[in-house]
Design goal:
The chain is of the alpha/beta class and 247 residues long. The protein contains 8 helices and 14 strands. The structure holds magnesium ion.
Amino acid sequence: MHRTVLNPSCVDDLPPAAGYLLDLDGTLVQGGRALPWARPLLRGIEGRFAILSNDAEHTPQALSRQLDRLGLSVPPDRIILAGTAAVAEVARRHPGARVMLLGSAALRRVARAAGLRLALRGVEVVLLARDRRFDHAALAAAANALRGGAALVVANPDLTHPGPNGAIVPETGALLAALLACAGDVPHIVVGKPEPTLFRQALALLDTAPEATVMIGDNAATDGQGAARLGLRFWPVGNAALVPATA
Ligand SMILES: [Mg+2]
């Protein structure tokens, strides 16, 4: 039976654990604001948590500064993000590769710093992240790179995320759907939740066993199922309790 952290007084009800993984959007922040339980929650588990987000646009340093402005103190080395983790995964699997990176300027800087060579032709890897400038030319270039044998690495599978007043904000998974519609269902690696890569990184960072670690999140399909696959407990926040969870 799932319980829900809905207000600061419920933070005391958190199950005891050696470590906690926290989703960001809908769990700590929403619509550019800290949720009411975010501060007491972080205080209650200080030194025992890592943030685990499918953000595929920003760096941990930038998000740490954003959170600081909202009164939430989280050092960058406690923030694990799908976008920067995807860059690291490409650099690990394909060191020094020629990469077509569809993503933000910040991710491009991270990729260059990781020794990857950003290119539009003769690429060995297409790295797809949240690209607000994604257009017909980018779609054509990426689809043809895949047709030419490039590997495909995707930051996260999310189709959308909720914007202000419930607006639909397209996410990396929507761009992936367009790309696969053109290139066919080519094999690809997904780094973000619910896949295990981010969870494993977080467990290594916290140095905790899966069964001694709790995932706190608002999405049963990503936070919950990703946690269940690795044997972590899932503690739903907000609307997650309304979604039938298999975790
Ligand atoms: Mg969320």
